[in-house]
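Hey everyone, long-time lurker, first post.

I ran two proteins through the pipeline my lab uses and got sequence/structure pairs for each. Pasting them in order. The first:
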Amino acid sequence: MNSTLKKHIFSHITLTDEEWYQFSSAFEHIALRKKEKLITVGDTVAQEYFVIKGCLKAYTKDAQENQHIVQFAIEDWWISDFRAFFNEQPAELTIECVENTEVLALKKTDLEALYHEIPKLERFFRIKLTNAFVSMQHRILSSLEKNSTERYTEFLKTYATLEQRIPNYLIANYLGIKPESLSRIRKMLVTPGSNL
């Protein structure tokens, strides 16, 4: 369990054995079943989560109760409703397991204490936050500037193993297209020259 997190952390910073023990001890292991919710709209969000196994989706709903997926999180990814987490506001996203999932939960209060005790952790989380911001901005621009085929191709690069793990309708939802459109795109990519 901790080896996945350790590899993830040490890819950006180095901790002493004592620092690693102190940091890793702050996490709580949580196991969830498929379709179980980690966060629901309106919740107080006091934790962020590192995925060690499984897949989650973060989504919002419109006035007609249609889901709009804004993020998937798979192994080695962090997830939370970060607006609620950082601003201490009620959650606007629901985060639900797409597969049986295991996460490591880190409380905001523990994280703030760790920043003082192990300052280099602040650098690690700044890197992760910057990467997340850049990724989200890229996704917004993609949705505005790129066609559905280009967005699907980008999805395959971002979530290389996910296509075989989750239903097609979830991928289509994430891309903002209908499932039948996704089927046509896949067919076209397999048979170049065919029309959408």
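...and the second, right after it:
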Amino acid sequence: MTTGPAPPGSPHRPPGRRLRALAPELLGFAVAGSFAYAADLALFVWLRGPAGLDPFMAKSLSFLAGCTVAYAGNAIGTYRARTRPAPPPYARRAARTPAPVRIRRYAVFLAVNLAGALVQLTCLGVSHHLLGLTSATADTVSGAGVGMALATCLRFWGTRTLVFRHAGDIPVQMVSKADEG
């Protein structure tokens, strides 16, 4: 039995083709993440220094700001085609995504990013407390190296599959009256 080429989203495509198909999405995700990291770091340094906040409050606020920048970058850039409902046949352009849908997406995005932060903290905790690797270098490698790499994979997966799903991937129960147009 002869079959044609595998469809674009098919897991039966060769790994090289899947990676090439994902490349623009990975690049967009990385660019949005870079801006988010810069915003998080700059705000943390300012809140901790000139603003004089304690480190946990400063980090909480800078984390929230970084998440907001990452969400905006992904919604406006990387996943732009997935964020707007399809236009009705008689309309010239797509309708604006209803506020409840945007709020739900941001809440899920925040949860995915919190899970990523938990992965980083877990890597740091395992290295520092269970393995006894307590030097500043070991903490940096485990938290900002290994932890960041694993957290980024989790964030990419969560962002593309839970936050910015294709409209056809959303179960019927999740489609609200606002989505129906």
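Reply from user beta_strand_b:
Welcome! Quick read of the second one: Residues 15-48 form the longest helix (34 residues). The helical segments are 15-48, 55-78, 80-83, 99-130, 136-163, 177-180.
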